[in-house]
Write a structure and sequence with these properties.
The complex is a heterodimer of chains A (452) and B (479). Chain A has 452 residues and is of the alpha/beta class. Chain A is built from 15 helices and 22 strands. In chain A, α2 links the parallel β2 and β3. Chain B has a two-stranded antiparallel ribbon. Classes of the chains: A alpha/beta (452), B mainly alpha (479).
C-alpha cells in the first residue's frame, strides 16, 4: 500500500512513525527541507520537498499510484486543496485534517460532494475523548465499538474493590454482570485471560460491555461510576470550547479559567451556560477559591504541557477529582505514565489513531471485512470488529464447540442493534457484528479465528 | 556506541563471505585444482567466527549515524582480511600484506595488482579475484540490506555511508526495496554483458571474470595483457559496458519506469558522456600515428578513456608509451571519476558540477556583494549541507593524497610513478603511469607504502569519511 503524507508536523510524523511498522510505502511532503531531512533520517520513507497542493510535487511523490493521501499541514484550506487535486490525478482515498469549525460544520458536503474520504478535527476528537472520560470517570481509557453501543474500558484494580486474589470465573459468578474481562495487564505481563486467571491489586483490567452493564459492574465493585457533576477546565482554547459545548447539555457544571481577557469574553459569548473566570490557572489561591477541593473533575488544557502535568499532580493532593491532562508536545510518555496523573490526552496520538484506523481498515478491506480495529495494551493486542455478511464455518455453531485459536476471545455480539456478551451456547449469525480480542495479529476474516 | 549491533552485522558479513566463497570452490572442482581447499578452509574460518556472532539478535536496537559509519568501515576491513585468507593458504600470494593489498584492491574495485604474471595462477584464485570486484562494486552492505530484516532508521545510515556521491537519494520509499532494485539492475546488466561477450566467442571463464571486472568497474584481468589479446568486437563490448556501469543507476531506474525524458535531462549524465566524447576525440587525434586506421585509433582511445573515467583500469594498449597530451588527459580523467550512484570511483562528475557552479557563484558575489544566489543542479538548488560536505570532501581528499605521495616518495621512485600510484589507488582505477603503468605492477613498493595504498583504496571506495571517522577520537568517546 502506498501512502503519501503531506505535512511533517507533530501529527504527520507520529503517523509516519506508526505506519512504517506496517507493509506500507511512505512518501512525506513538506515545504521545509529541514523537516523532511530530520523525518527521513529516522523514518524509512521517501521525502519530497515542495508544496503538497502543487501537482508537480504530488506527481514527484507518485500520486498516480498512491492508495491514500493524508493531508495534515497547518492550514485547513491547503489540506482540502491537496485532497481535491490528489483525487483529480490519482485514484486515492484522501484524508484531511480540518480544524476550523466553519468548515467542519460542512462535514457532509465535503465528504459527499468533494469526495474527501475522511476529515478529522483534532481538537474536536480530543474533546470527545475527554467528555467520554468525564462521563465515565472510573475508566482510564475508553474505546468504542458498534457505533458507540459497546465500549472497551480499562481501569486499575484498587484494594477497596475486593477483587484481589479472585479468578476471572469467580468474579463473573459472584457479580453476575454481563461483562467480559478481555485483557489483564500486570506489572510486566499482559494476557488475554482464561477462567482461571487470578487478578491482583494494581493490575490494569480491560472489560468489554455496554455502557449500562459497565456502570452496573463498577457499582457492584464499589467504584464511583456516575458521570461527574462539575468540572474545572484550565485553559480556554479550542478543545475547551468543544468540550464545554458537549458537557453543558449533559448538565455538568463547567468552570473555565483563562488568562486572556479577550478569549474569556469570546467564550462567555459562545457558552452562556458556563462560568468563565479570568485569571491565572496556575494561581493556587485562585484554584482553591474556585473550589478545586470540591470539584469532581479537573481538566488541564493549557498550551504548556509541563503546567498541565504539574496542575494535575497538585489537584491530586488537594482533591479527589478525576484529572485529565493534555500533552501536545512532550514525548516522554513513559515518564508521564509513571507519574500517576490520572488520564492523559495526547491530541497528536488521537488524530493519528483515527487516521490509522481508517488506513488499517482500507488495508484490511482487500479481501476482508474488518469494520474497526484498535491496537490495545501498548500495541500487544488488537480488538477487531467484523461484520458477518455470509455463511462461513463459524456461523451457526455454538461458540463452545468452535475450535478457537489460543489467546483469542469473542468479546461481543451485536445483533439487530442489541448488544450481548456471548456465552458458550451462543452462536454467530449472518448479519451480526462481532468483536474479537486477540494477540494474534493480522486477522483478515472471521474465519481466521479458528485454529487451523 | 552500540557495539552489539555492529558486531552482529559484521558477523553477517562473515557469513556472506563464506557463501560467496562457494563459487571459487565450484571453479576449483571444475578445473580439478587443489587450491580449492584453501577456499574451504577460509569458508570454515568465516563461519566459525560469523555464526556465533549472529546467533542472537541484539536486544539493544539503538542505531544512529555514528554506528552506521563505524559499521561500514569495519565491515570493509573485516571483509578484506577474510577475503585475503585464500590467497595466503593457496600460496598464490604468500606474503600477508601483498594478499591484503590484492584483496582490498579487489573489493574496492581498484584492480591494482602486486602480481607480475597472472596467467600462472589457479583458475579458482583468478575467479575469486574478479568476483571480489563484483561484490564490492555495488557494496556488500547494500546487499546485506536486501536480505537482512533490519528495521527502521538503521538502513539509511548504512546506505548513506556506503553509497558513493555527494548526496544519497532513494529510488523508492523503502531502503530495502531500493537496495533490491539496485542489485537487480546490477545483476541484469552483468548478465547482459556476459551474453554479449559469449556471442563474441570469449571462453566462459574469461567472460565471467571480465564481466565481473567491468560490472564492479574493477579491472583485474585473467590475462597478462589485460584485454589487449581479445578481438576488436570484445574490446568494444567491454568499453561500452564499462561506460554503462559508470552511469548513475537511478538513470536506469528512470528508464525502467519509462521516464526517458527525465533520464536524459540528468545533468550529470550529459556532462559524463560529454567528457568521454571530448577526451576520446582529443586522444584519438593525439595518438593517430601510433595505430592503423581511424577505427582502431578511435576504439583504442574510447576504450582507454572509458576504462579510466569509470575507474575500471582495463587496458588494450600500453598508454604509458603515448604522447604527453594523452597521458595528461588520462591522469585528469582519473580524478574526475564516474557518476555518483554508480559502481565507479573517483571524485565523481556531480561533485565537479557542484564545485564549478559554486565557484561561479563566488565570482558572482565578488561583483555583486549583496546578491543572493543558489547553486543549482537538475533544476533544484543544492542545499548548504551538500555544498559544505563537497568542499570538505575535496579538502580531505587532497590532504590524504599529498600525505600518501610524500610517504611513497621514500621508495626513491620518480614523481610520476608515486603521483599516479596514489591517484590510481585513491580513485580505485588500478594502473597508473611509468613503473605502475599498464604493463607494470605495485609489487616493488615497501610494506609501509602498500599499507598506505591499501588505506587510500578503502578511503576512495568509501568516500573517505567513514574510514577517517574510524581514526577520530570523538567516534569512540562514550559521551
Amino acid at each position: 500500500m502506498q501512502i503519501i503524507i503531506v505535512g511533517c508536523g507533530k501529527v504527520g510524523r507520529t503517523l509516519a512513525e506508526q505506519l512504517q511498522e506496517e507493509e506500507t510505502d511512505l512518501t512525506l511532503i513538506d515545504t521545509s527541507p529541514e523537516k523532511i531531512n530530520s523525518a527521513t533520517e529516522g523514518i524509512d520513507a521517501m521525502g519530497v520537498v515542495g508544496n503538497g497542493a502543487s501537482i508537480n510535487t504530488l506527481m514527484e511523490a507518485g500520486i498516480e499510484s498512491a492508495d491514500i493521501l493524508i493531508a495534515v499541514t497547518e492550514s485547513d484550506e491547503l489540506n482540502l486543496l491537496c485532497c481535491l487535486i490528489a483525487q483529480k490525478t490519482g485514484h486515492c482515498h484522501t484524508i484531511a485534517r480540518v480544524r476550523n469549525p466553519i468548515y467542519y460544520k460542512e462535514y457532509d458536503f465535503i465528504k459527499k460532494r468533494l469526495g474527501v474520504a475522511m476529515i478529522i478535527n483534532p481538537e474536536l476528537a480530543a474533546a470527545q475523548e475527554i467528555s467520554r472520560l468525564l462521563s465515565f470517570p472510573s475508566a482510564i481509557k475508553i474505546d468504542s465499538f458498534a457505533k458507540g453501543k459497546v465500549e472497551l474500558l480499562k481501569f486499575k484494580v484498587m484494594p477497596e474493590f475486593g477483587l484481589d486474589g479472585m479468578s476471572v470465573s469467580q468474579i463473573s459468578a459472584k457479580l453476575r454482570c454481563d461483562i467480559l474481562i478481555c485483557a489483564i495487564e500486570s506489572k510486566d505481563n499482559m494476557a488475554i485471560p482464561g477462567g482461571n486467571h487470578v487478578i491482583h491489586n494494581g493490575d490494569f483490567v480491560s472489560i468489554i460491555a455496554s455502557r449500562v452493564n459497565a456502570s452496573l459492574f463498577f457499582k457492584k465493585i464499589g467504584l464511583k461510576t456516575n458521570q461527574v457533576k462539575n468540572t474545572i477546565i484550565v485553559g480556554g482554547g479550542e478543545i475547551s470550547y468543544y468540550l464545554s459545548d458537549m458537557l453543558l447539555p449533559m448538565h455538568i457544571n463547567v468552570k473555565i479559567i483563562e488568562k486572556d481577557r479577550a478569549i474569556c469574553e469570546q467564550l462567555s459569548d459562545l457558552l452562556p451556560g458556563a462560568t468563565i473566570i479570568n485569571g491565572d490557572g496556575t494561581d493556587r489561591a485562585l484554584l482553591m477559591e474556585e473550589g478545586l477541593a470540591k470539584a469532581e473533575s479537573f481538566v488541564t488544557l493549557t498550551n504548556m504541557d509541563e503546567e498541565n502535568i504539574f496542575l494535575s499532580l497538585y489537584a491530586k493532593t488537594v482533591s479527589s477529582a478525576k484529572q485529565v491532562a493534555k500533552i501536545s508536545r512532550l514525548s516522554y510518555d513513559d515518564v508521564i505514565d509513571s507519574l500517576d496523573v490520572g488520564s492523559v490526552i495526547y491530541p497528536k496520538y488521537i488524530t493519528a489513531d483515527y487516521i490509522l484506523q481508517y488506513v488499517r481498515a482500507a488495508q484490511n478491506s482487500i479481501g476482508s471485512n474488518v469494520e474497526t480495529l484498535y491496537h490495545i495494551l501498548d500495541n500487544q493486542a488488537e480488538a477487531l470488529e467484523f461484520a458477518i455478511h455470509e455463511k462461513s464455518p463459524v456461523v451457526g455453531i455454538p461458540l463452545a464447540q468452535l475450535n478457537l485459536k489460543k489467546n483469542l476471545l469473542v468479546g461481543c455480539l451485536n445483533r439487530n442493534g442489541k448488544v450481548r456478551i456471548p456465552r458458550g451456547q451462543d452462536s454467530i449469525q449472518v448479519g451480526d457484528t462481532v468483536i474479537i480480542v486477540t494477540t494474534n495479529k493480522g486477522l483478515r476474516d472471521i474465519r481466521d479465528i479458528l485454529e487451523r | 556506541m552500540n557495539y552489539s549491533i555492529i558486531v552482529y552485522i559484521i558477523g553477517w558479513i562473515l557469513n556472506f563471505q563464506a557463501i560467496f566463497m562457494v563459487l571459487p570452490c565450484i571453479t576449483a572442482v571444475i578445473y580439478r585444482e587443489s587450491a580449492g581447499f584453501s577456499f574451504v578452509i577460509a569458508m570454515v574460518l568465516c563461519l566459525v567466527a560469523g555464526i556465533p556472532l549472529t546467533r542472537k539478535k541484539p536486544s539493544n536496537r539503538v542505531f544512529y549515524t555514528r554506528e552506521g559509519y563505524v559499521t561500514v568501515a569495519l565491515s570493509w576491513i573485516v571483509l578484506s582480511i577474510a577475503g585475503a585468507l585464500p590467497f595466503i593458504f593457496s600460496r598464490s600470494i604468500p606474503n600477508p600484506i601483498d594478499a591484503l593489498f590484492e584483496t582490498i584492491s579487489g573489493f574496492t574495485t581498484t584492480g591494482a595488482s602486486i602480481l607480475t604474471a597472472v596467467e600462472g595462477l589457479p583458475h579458482c584464485v583468478l575467479f575469486w579475484r574478479s568476483f571480489t570486484h563484483w561484490i564490492g562494486g555495488m557494496g556488500v552492505l547494500v546487499f546485506l540490506l536486501c536480505l537482512l530484516p533490519l528495521s527502521g532508521g538503521y538502513q539509511m545510515s548504512l546506505m548513506r555511508a556506503e553509497s558513493p556521491g555527494p548526496s544519497v537519494s532513494k529510488l523508492v520509499p523503502k531502503v530495502r526495496s531500493t537496495a533490491k532494485i539496485l542489485y537487480t539492475i546490477y545483476f541484469a546488466l552483468t548478465v547482459l554483458e556476459i551474453i554479449f561477450l559469449l556471442l563474441g566467442g570469449m571462453p566462459l571463464f574469461d567472460t565471467l571474470c571480465t564481466a565481473f571486472g567491468t560490472a564492479g568497474t574493477g579491472g583485474f584481468g585473467v590475462k597478462n595483457d589485460s584485454i589487449a589479446g581479445y578481438s576488436p568486437y570484445l574490446q568494444t563490448v567491454t568499453a561500452i559496458f564499462m561506460i554503462l556501469f559508470g552511469i548513475n543507476f537511478s538513470v536506469y531506474y528512470l528508464i525502467i519506469t519509462k521516464k526517458f525524458m527525465q533520464a536524459l535531462k540528468i545533468e550529470e549524465l550529459r556532462y559524463y558522456l560529454g567528457i568521454i566524447a571530448l577526451s576520446t576525440l582529443t586522444i584519438a587525434l593525439d595518438i593517430r600515428h601510433l595505430f592503423h586506421g581511424v577505427w582502431e585509433t578511435l576504439r583504442t582511445a574510447l576504450f582507454q578513456v572509458g576504462s579510466i573515467i569509470t575507474t575500471t583500469g582495463f587496458a588494450t594498449a600500453d598508454f604509458n608509451q603515448w604522447p604527453g597530451l594523452s597521458r595528461t588527459i588520462l591522469v585528469m580523467l582519473m580524478f574526475v571519476g564516474a557518476c555518483a550512484g554508480s559502481t565507479g570511483g573517483g571524485i565523481k562528475v556531480s561533485r565537479f558540477i557542484i564545485l564549478w557552479r559554486a565557484l561561479r557563484k563566488e565570482l558572482h558575489l565578488f561583483l555583486h556583494p549583496n546578491a543572493v544566489k543558489k547553486v543549482r543542479m537538475d533544476g533544484k538548488s543544492i542545499s548548504h549541507e551538500v555544498l559544505r560536505s563537497t568542499n570538505n570532501f575535496i579538502m580531505v581528499y587532497f590532504l590524504i593524497f599529498a600525505v600518501s605521495v610524500l610517504i611513497l616518495s621514500f621508495n626513491e621512485f620518480d614523481l610520476v610513478t608515486n603521483f599516479t600510484a596514489v591517484a590510481a589507488t585513491i580513485n580505485n582505477i588500478g594502473p597508473g603511469l611509468e613503473l605502475v603503468g599498464p604493463t607494470g605492477n605495485f609489487s616493488m613498493f615497501s610494506p609501509l607504502s602498500k599499507c598506505v595504498l591499501c588505506f587510500d583504496m578503502l578511503a576512495g571506495r568509501l568516500e573517505i569519511f567513514p574510514l577517517v571517522l574510524l581514526f577520530a577520537r570523538d567516534t569512540w568517546k562514550k559521551f
